[in-house]
Amino acid sequence: MSLRPFLKEIAREPSRYLLLAAVAGTVLLLDQVTKTMIQHAMQLRESISVVDGLFSLTYIRNTGAAFGLFAGRADGLRMAFFGTVSVVAIVFLWTLFARTPREAWLGRLAIALVMGGAMGNLVDRIRFGEVVDFLDFYIGRYHWPAFNVADSCISIGVALMVWHFIRADRRSDGSDRSPAAHA
C-alpha cells in the first residue's frame, strides 16, 4: 500500500487536515502518556481505589478486542487480525474524513477522535502485542471492562459520528423540524 494518495490529498488542501492532525495527535499523545504513567507507577493487576465502590485505576493488559474478545486466540493470528483491522479502519477513517465537508466540523471531529484512539491502541499492539487498560468502573461486584483513553475517544467519537450523520440525514431529507431549520 502506498502513501502517495494520502500525501497528494494533504498537499492539495493542507489546512483541511489540521483538525485531524491536532485531534488525533492529541488523543494518541494523551493515550500513550497515560499508559506509560500507569505502567511505571503500578504493577500489573494492581488496583488503586479512586472513588470507593465506583472507580479504580487497575493496570491490566488486554490481549483481545473490546471487552476481551478474541483474547484466547494464538498470538500470531490475533496480531495479524488486529493489525489488519486497525490499518483498514484507519484508511477508512481517513477516506471518510476526506469526503466529509469542511463545514461538517462535528463529523470531522468525531472521525479524528476515533482515528486517534485507533492509532493509540495500534501502537500498543505493535509495542506489546496487547493493549494497556486501566480505567475500571464498577458498582459493587459488577465491573465494566477496564478501558483506556484511546477506548474512551473511540466511544465518544462513534457516538458523535452517529449523531452527526443522523442530523445530516434529517437535514438532507427535510425532516429537521427545528425552528432554526425553517428560519
Tell me what you see in this structure.
This protein has 183 residues and is of the alpha+beta class. The protein has one domain. Helices cover 58% and strands 13% of the residues. The protein has 5 helices and 4 strands; from the N terminus they run H-H-E-E-H-H-E-E-H. The protein has helices at 4-12, 18-41, 75-99, 105-128, 149-173; strands at 47-51, 55-62, 131-139, 142-143. A 4-stranded antiparallel beta sheet has the order 1-2-3-4. A hairpin with a 2-residue loop joins strand 3 (131-139) and strand 4. The termini are far apart.
Number of domains: 1
As laid out across the biggest beta sheet, the strand order is 1-2-3-4
Structural class category: alpha+beta
The largest sheet is: 4 strands, antiparallel
Distance between the termini: 48 Å
Give the count of helical stretches.
5
Low-confidence stretches: 178-183
Strand/helix succession: HHEEHHEEH
Morphology call = globular
Number of strands: 4
Topology:
Layout: H1 4-12, H2 18-41, E1 47-51, E2 55-62, H3 75-99, H4 105-128, E3 131-139, E4 142-143, H5 149-173
Antiparallel strand pairs: 1-2, 2-3, 3-4
Helix pairs in contact: 2-4, 3-4, 4-5
What's the short version?
Helices cover 58% and strands 13% of the residues. The protein is of the alpha+beta class. It has a four-stranded antiparallel sheet with strand order 1-2-3-4.
Structural features:
single chain; 183 residues; alpha+beta; 5 helices; 4 strands
